[in-house]
TrEMBL record:
Keywords: Disulfide bond, Signal. This is SGNH hydrolase-type esterase domain-containing protein. PANTHER family: LIPASE 2, SGNH HYDROLASE-TYPE ESTERASE DOMAIN-CONTAINING PROTEIN. GO terms for biological process: lipid metabolic process. InterPro entries: SEST-like, SGNH_hydro_sf. The keyword Phosphoprotein does not apply. One of its GO terms (molecular function) is hydrolase activity, acting on ester bonds. Disulfide bonds join 281-312. Residues 1-26 form the signal peptide.
Length: 667
């Protein structure tokens, strides 16, 4: 980095000031690059063969290190977010790009914002930056070997540096005001030419709110690493017949058999689990909200993006947005588990962040909110459970504990409770975005159970991770049709104040609504299969639900019928399905929820039947994959750019349908 030296005002500087003053009187735009001979008459000669170009470095401010942002910029390279995600997945051999970035963020795993945050060796206020790092260079028809004398007037005295014009300059410019830049270009005996511009960084403040679709559930930043050996679970049937083996966690040194356990096994087991940007909420860097914010920064070199992720798996409007909710998992640290127990209300967290920012920068505003909410309000997880829990013992237990929800029950909430709560949310968000809810970009859900535009057929394929699971075809079709014909249209009406939904101020109560990705998901539901899927998926995940060895003696050594090791599974390899099934959930996250403050509410034995069920679904069953989130981000980006006035032309999600030969339905 070239250091800039301060100079005292001189005659040259005074002449420069006079020249610039005349240019302003002549009606020239301050931010327009101009080239004039320094000794010329006051008339300014406009030229187009040289320009001052500049961009903000590491402009996605959640990243501490520029290398992480550079990776994203390189992957995007004029491509869609989906194409970039697929490229990064291939580069990482399906292990995922976020695993290396997780420890280099300005927000820790407990959700605390680092104030200050050290980014590329410089301490910055994360929510209220006072300056930004930029790179400035001279471009265009620059004479070879020319010398550039740079002046940056953002203080008294100004900063100056002279060097070869081929060299860029790195510096930090103050936020909240423009920095005039002048460069005198000298080459040979000719009089120097002057190029001027202004640098003004726009720092865009974005908050991400919502539920598990918003948080990135199903896509841990560091997926669980599975062992090739079997691990025993009990089922609710009891006895030897009620035992089954599935892959365990790599690195776990405790007992793998059901008849041997000890009190320390649970903590040791948790240490070998998946890692999240925020375990309590299962927030992930793969979420569509984060991916869109990254792409926004990557595609706009002269902005910076300050991003505050608050979305939380399990959130409803009442519990999660307006009041605290139960945390999903504990933070696993060097000294053991750190459990929050509950997570603060998202609206409260956002208000406190804005209040803290306003104390330091009164002009600081929230520019954009990304939002997805409503599925948990109608108990969508209960609908899923009603579809996949098949065996009578487990169904009876699930029904008694209130885990199962019928379509009629969800419909009743959709028609009454959700509209009431959504109106409360609208009123709470409105003052946070300057009274205009168009600055809230509501990204709709996609139907997770479609392939070739029709409902998935059901069966054990994708769900045989647990002996009691089987997607009932009739119940699956009923839920799929309810989602498509009732839930998704009502969500649209609520966001847009349409379809009979009344809003107090129709013009300013309508959110910006995004649903362009739904058509693409119609070919990529949880049952989609392709000849281009990873070899492990094609060979080891049976379409008929016969993936695992039933004999417990043989399964203890390797529970997969295909004979391959579970460690060969790659959570982030591109595949036809953009929605994780239960098998994916287990192989990717294998979650043991451990966040309640009262541990007596949870089984102490890691082989317990309850863990067998939860580990199969708690890590993101029937949630978008990283590819699905990337497709959602592609749909959201043009809407966000339009709201922010950044002028991106329409860039619809592109998804080529799979050929009939390449796409197979689960049988």
């Amino acid at each position: 980095m070239f250091q800039l030296r301060a100079i005292r005002p001189s005659l040259t500087a005074k002449l420069l000031a006079a020249s610039l003053s005349f240019a302003a009187i002549a009606g020239r735009a301050d931010a327009q690059t101009q080239i004039v001979p320094p000794s010329a008459a006051p008339a300014v000669q406009l030229a187009t063969d040289m320009q001052i170009s500049w961009e903000v470095r590491n402009r996605f401010r959640l990243f501490r290190e520029e290398r992480d942002f550079a990776l994203q910029v390189s992957a995007l390279g004029g491509r869609s977010i989906l194409a970039a995600e697929q490229s990064l997945a291939t580069q990482s051999d399906g292990r995922g790009w976020a695993r290396n970035t997780l420890g280099r963020l300005c927000i820790d795993q407990a959700g605390r914002v680092s104030e200050p945050c050290t980014r590329d060796g410089v301490k910055e206020s994360y929510l209220t930056p006072v300056d930004h790092p930029v790179t400035v260079r001279l471009t265009g028809a620059v004479p070879v070997g020319a010398t550039c004398a740079w002046t940056f007037e953002d203080g008294d005295p100004p900063r100056q540096s002279t060097l070869d014009c081929a060299e860029p300059i790195n510096l930090r410019v103050r936020y909240g005001r423009a920095t005039p830049v002048t460069v005198d270009v000298s080459s040979g005996p000719d009089a120097p030419l002057r190029v001027t511009t202004q640098i003004a960084v726009r720092d865009i403040f974005i908050a991400g709110l919502g539920d598990s679709i918003a948080s990135g559930e199903g896509n841990p930043d560091r997926p669980v690493v599975l062992s090739d050996d079997g691990f025993c679970f009990r089922s609710y049937l009891g006895g030897p017949a009620g035992m089954y083996f599935r892959p365990g966690r790599a690195g776990f040194k405790g007992a793998r058999a059901c008849d041997t356990s000890d009190g320390s096994s649970l903590q040791n087991w948790q240490r070998a689990g998946a890692q999240w940007m925020n375990p309590a909420c299962h927030r992930s860097l793969y979420s569509y909200q984060t991916r869109m914010a990254i792409a926004l920064a990557a595609q706009n070199p002269q902005i910076a993006v300050t991003y505050l992720p608050l979305a939380c798996t399990g959130a409803t409007i009442a519990e999660g947005m307006f009041s605290s909710q139960r945390a999903r998992e504990c933070v696993v640290g060097k000294n053991g588990l750190s459990c929050q127990g509950t997570v603060n209300a998202q609206i409260t967290e956002l208000r406190e962040a804005l209040s803290a920012a306003a104390k330091r920068q009164p002009e600081r505003q929230l520019d954009l909110v990304l939002l997805s909410i409503g599925a948990n309000d109608i108990d969508f997880s209960g609908l899923v459970a009603d579809v996949i829990v098949e065996r009578q013992t487990e169904r009876a237990l699930s029904r008694r504990s209130g885990v199962l929800t019928s379509v009629d029950e969800a419909r009743s909430i959709l028609q009454t409770g959700l509209p009431r709560d959504f109106n409360k949310l609208r009123q709470a968000l409105k003052p946070l975005v300057g009274g205009d809810l168009a600055r809230v970009v509501y990204v709709a859900y996609a139907n997770p159970a479609l392939v070739n535009g029709a409902p998935c057929p059901g069966g054990r394929g994708g769900f045989d991770i647990h002996p009691a699971f089987n997607a009932d075809p009739q119940r699956l079709a009923e839920v799929t049709n309810f989602v498509q014909s009732e839930f998704l249209p009502q969500i649209r009406n609520l966001a847009l104040c349409s379809g009979g939904v009344l809003c107090g101020d129709q013009a300013r109560d309508r959110m910006t609504f995004v649903d362009q990705h739904q058509a693409a998901f119609a070919n990529h539901g949880f049952c989609a299969r392709s000849e281009t899927d990873p070899a492990f998926d094609r060979e080891c995940f049976s379409a008929t639900g016969e993936s695992f060895v039933n004999d417990i003696v043989n399964a203890a050594n390797n529970p997969l019928v295909c004979g391959a090791g579970a460690s060969d599974f790659r959570a982030y390899s591109p595949r036809a399905r953009w929605v994780r099934d239960a098998n994916d959930s287990y192989f990717t996250a294998m979650t043991y929820p451990q966040a309640q403050k009262a541990p007596t509410n949870q089984p102490g034995d890691i082989h317990d039947a309850t863990w067998g069920v939860l580990s199969a679904v708690y890590g993101g069953a029937i949630h978008p994959t990283a590819e699905g989130h990337a497709a959602m981000a592609d749909a959201a980006l043009p809407a966000a750019m339009s709201v922010l006035g950044l002028g991106l032309t329409e860039a619809p999600v592109v998804s080529e349908p799979l050929s009939p030969a390449a796409q197979q339905r689960a049988q």
